[in-house]
Design a protein that fits this description.
By secondary structure, this protein is an alpha/beta fold. It has twelve helices and seven strands. The protein has a three-stranded parallel sheet with strand order 1-4-5, sandwiched between helices. Strands 2-3 form a two-stranded antiparallel sheet. A two-stranded antiparallel sheet has the order 6-7. The longest helix is centred in the last third of the chain and has 16 residues, at 192-207. The radius of gyration is 24 Å and the shape is elongated. The model is unreliable at 1-5 and 267-274 (pLDDT under 50).
Amino acid sequence: MAAGSGKSSLLLEAFPESYPEAIMVGQGSIGISSRSKLATYMGIMDDIRSLLSKQTGRPAGLFSFNSLGACPICEGKGVTTPDVAFADPVTTTCEACGGTRYSDEALSYRYEDKNIVEILALTIDEAVNYFKLPKIIKRVNTLKDVGLGYLTLVQTTSSLSGGEVQRLKLASYLQKEGQIYVLDEPSVGLHAKDNGKLLDVFQTLVNRGNSVIIVEHNLDFIAASDWVIELGPGGGKRGGQIVFEGTPEEMVQAETVTAKWLKTGAAEDFRSTT
């Protein structure tokens, strides 16, 4: 499809007017600090602290390194920078907390045989079986559903690849109820190996009875679609017209710009994801 042919305008601006219940997933950032943990992003960090608080009878703030639970030596930073005369400052791991950022008191309390650091070190797959609170289970399951089960609860968003960020963002929308998902070029920033993982997520949504509508140039996504609508024939004033609609199999018989690329670029493994 030609760039500027009106795809995004049609789906992200006009479409919601007729289908306000549709879940729109644009290309914006995930909207949180790059230092945020997955547990924070998924909205379960406070719940984890509450579980520890109820189990131990201690205030929830004790299980935060930004509050009562901070290591008194490094003040919750996990590192120290000693003042050395006539030398450049050197930052080292805090010897008192070993880089955990928590005080000894905070680490002495446990929920289901694990302290706060050990809980946050759980992978998503492990967390599904560890927690019993329905809210937490539901949210970690959404991460598992998008293929992020190998990540840990303490992992920072800044450490994720482009493909992982896309799936993390999608996971946050999967918590919402809806039958129509509209995504604007979800393959942007993804490594080629991540395309298949994201397509698996979309196929799962479809198998559950949802509709997934995608604005996309990526041939893998076009080839894996059930129905393709191509806008063109050009960009700007030369765009906005439907030049083809049908299945990918039918598209390779057409003479549009995208059809020509699809014939050569996706012929070897055509619709291999279905």
